[in-house]
Amino acid sequence: MAEEATTKSKKKLNGIERAAILLMTLGEKDAAEVFKLMNPKEVQKVGEAMARLGSVGREEVDEVLAEFCDTVDEQTALGIGNEEYLRNVLVNALGEDKAGNIIDRILMGHNAKGLESLKWMEPRSVAELIRLEHPQIIAIILSYLESDQSAEVLAALPENMRADILIRIATLDGIQPSALKELDEMLEKQFTGNADSLKSAGIGGVKTAANVLNFIDSSMEAEIMDKIKEADEELGQNIQDLMFVFDNLVDVDDRGIQSLLREISSENLIVALKGADEAVKEKILKNMSKRAAEMLRDDLDAKGPVRISEVEAAQKEILAVARRMSESGEISLGGGGDEFV
User: Fold this and answer.
1) Is the per-residue pLDDT at 161 higher than 70?
2) What gap in Å lies between CA 209 and CA 243, rounded to an integer?
3) 112-242 under CATH 1.10.220.30, yes or no
4) Is 37 helix (H, G, I), strand (E, B) or coil?
5) Domain range summary for the chain, segments of one domain joined by +
6) Residue 38 contacts by C-beta under 8 Å, 6 or more apart in sequence?
7) How far is it, in rounded angstroms, from Cα 51 to Cα 39?
8) Residue 6's pLDDT is what?
9) CATH class of the region 246-340
10) pLDDT per residue over 99-126, tens digit each?
11) Which residue from 37, 207, 291, 302 has the highest number of Cβ atoms inside 10 Å of its Cβ?
12) What does the alpha-carbon distance between residue 86 and residue 92 come to, in Å, rounded to a whole number?
């Protein structure tokens, strides 16, 4: 029985948790050196995972270390250029456009300038840098950033600007490369880029606005949506139709739910389901083994009251994993139609 529980626990470890276990085995000094090479968001996620792990079994540690050694063996002494290999793998996995943005971020790193450099800055720093710009400029910049970062930047901007900026993002229909280059050069002067390679395709639009709102805190999201609908009821509804919320998981197919469950922690799932619609709970439970479903029901009953803010945070974390898996083609999100996916 104990062996079965251990096996179940090991299967639930996601990538961040495996990284946390690996760092814990390195010792404080070596782990600190690894942390120095990570960006703040990565440090926070891995640090939180380390804090949540508690006691870790010897078998789990051995499995994580063995997997790490296998990965290192597979990725060294290949005799090919790292950049070319990375580019080919990501293009095959994600397509040319999406892979291009990711490759640029990886290869340019902290040497990035202009617009690209914003992707490597803390959201509050970006907000402080752009808060005095015209709302249309801010909308273009937020459209260019990743949705989760844009959401944090938007949350750090003055409250009276947020709805206006989201409306501008939603109604932005691309931007001329020359205008994008001019904006890039303006930001470069502040940082002291070259925008020739920047692409205008996919910047702005209702889908972008919906993606940004998906990452906004729930209370702030409702307030912004109300203001958008006051200004333009149809636009607000269009944005809302493209948003993917936790209850929309009921529209994901069974295989997608099973894949998602392998990537999220049981503790996060328990907290998230405390405030979920009954249909979502049943969708999750029916895609688990009978024993796992029974254990989850017991855990939910034993959990007791949970703060709404904790439930929303857990749900958004699971949704972030779901969106990442959707973007990589691992699952297909329902509820928003093909236009969202």
Assistant:
1) yes
2) 9
3) yes
4) coil
5) 2-75, 112-242, 246-340
6) 46
7) 18
8) 46
9) mainly alpha
10) 665 655 555 444 455 667 777 778 888 8
11) 207
12) 10
